[in-house]
Write a structure and sequence with these properties.
By secondary structure, the protein is α/β, with parallel strands linked by helices. It has helices spanning about 5-10, 15-25, 35-50, 55-65, 70, 80-90, 90-110, 135-140, 170-175, 195-205, 225-240, and strands at about 115-125, 145-155, 160-165, 185, 205-210, 250. It has a 6-stranded mixed β-sheet with strand order 3-2-1-4-5-6.
Length: about 260
Amino acid sequence: MYTNTRFGELLKVLPKNTFKRCVEQHRSDKHNKGFDSWWQLISLMYAQLSGCRSLRELEVSYNSHSAHHYHLGCGPIKRSTLSDANRQRDAGVFESFCQQLMGRAHRRVRNEINDLLYLLDSTPICLRGRGYEWTQARSMSRIPGLKIHLLYSPDKQLPCDARITASTQNDIEYGRNVEIEKGAKYVFDKGYCDYNWWHQIDQEGAFFVTRLKRNASSGCSKAARPKEIYCRMRSLSLKTNGLAAAGKTTTSNRCGE
């Protein structure tokens, strides 16, 4: 008797109709010869969750569960076919689908949490060695490869938005494109220093917590009790698990609130 696997249960939550719309938008199955985008997505997810380190290992491990392929909507894979698909198929279809999933999770976060808190940061993805020579030629940074920018909700432990860019792209370039929500609080470091963008956050009715640069010139436009400001900032600092500093190195764009 057939028994569903944990991997099959995980795939049930993926909106297949949404994925089909992404495929149609990017026309990723235009030259499909049997190995479609859905099949490729399942293969890549299995590789990630099972910790496969090579296409050969993925082929052997994935094909050993042939009894479940039909219920997953696919079949056995060949490493040469998957390699060709990874090289030739536009990755934009998977990026669009990921954005759709994060958008759904983000709406649920907004509905469940009144006091929205977001962490904004980036981290490099180091790519060195055989097959990644192109990163050496294109990268001007100390870490060759890519960079991932992330907008994260610590309350629900969910990513709300993510972008993968060249390692040389400044953090603030991504920050300027973040959709600001009224009443939300944004926590980020000195890499997002842009006074015009900070002013935009204030105009949208949102708040931010950051670290000022040493040469920053700042002041308080409204009197407030220092103890109240310190308590609010320390509470926010503890809530973000130390990602935002409290005390002298932390500031808010609205001193009196």
